[in-house]
Design a protein that fits this description.
Blueprint (H helix, E strand, L loop, with lengths): L4 H15 L9 H5 L4 H5 L9 H19 L10 H4 L8 H24 L17 H29 L24
Helix pairs in contact: 1-6, 1-7, 4-6, 4-7
Pfam families: DinB_2
Protein name: DinB family protein
């Protein structure tokens, strides 16, 4: 059996960005989501931005993608916008719990698949159906998590500063902003 030191380091980084209380860059994903209510999870800062619920769904989708690729599934892909960025017009307590549970399960599956790898040599192999390595894919998941965790933090701050959580019409908030109207960054 060959060494798998890099795989173990990657697992540590994935776990740190997901749930550590000591991530060097700021709150982990779990910390960022800790006090997000269903109303905050469904909020949009403007009509052309994603909600926290949609971002979490998107993060889960790409974890599942990584798991399927680690399992050798060359056919699995995310080809439709609904599979990548599902819309959640209303997020109640049950829906929000389900979205968070799916994220948690996808993290467990990803770590489990990585733990099955017997050698760091797999990291140099190309992902089935892609033109990049497993190393790039897995580090991409880490970078993706950090990026979207930052978005979640910004959305939470914006929502709190607008004090929208107290507003009964919170879910209908549009913000009236034309910020990045032609872009789909968030």
């Amino acid at each position: 059996m060959e060494a798998k030191e890099e795989i173990l380091r990657i697992i540590d980084v994935l776990n740190d960005t997901y749930e550590s209380e000591e991530a060097w860059y700021g709150p982990s994903l779990v910390e960022a989501l800790r006090d997000v209510s269903p109303k905050v999870a469904e909020a949009r800062l403007s009509s052309n931005t994603h909600s926290i619920a949609e971002i979490v769904y998107h993060m889960t989708t790409w974890r599942i993608f990584a798991v399927r690729k680690l399992q050798g599934d060359a056919e699995f892909d995310i080809k439709t916008k609904d599979k990548d960025w599902k819309k959640f017009p209303v997020v109640d307590e049950f829906e929000w719990e389900a979205i968070q549970m799916e994220l948690s399960l996808s993290q467990e599956e990803l770590i489990s698949e990585l733990e099955k790898i017997e050698s760091d040599a797999l990291l140099e192999e190309f992902v089935p159906g892609r033109d990049y390595s497993y190393y790039t894919l897995i580090h991409g998941v880490v970078q993706h998590d950090v990026y979207h965790t930052g978005q979640i933090g910004l959305i939470k701050k914006a929502v709190k500063s607008m004090r929208l959580e107290e507003d009964d019409d919170f879910g209908a908030y549009d913000g009236g902003s034309d910020f990045d109207k032609d872009n789909d960054y968030y």
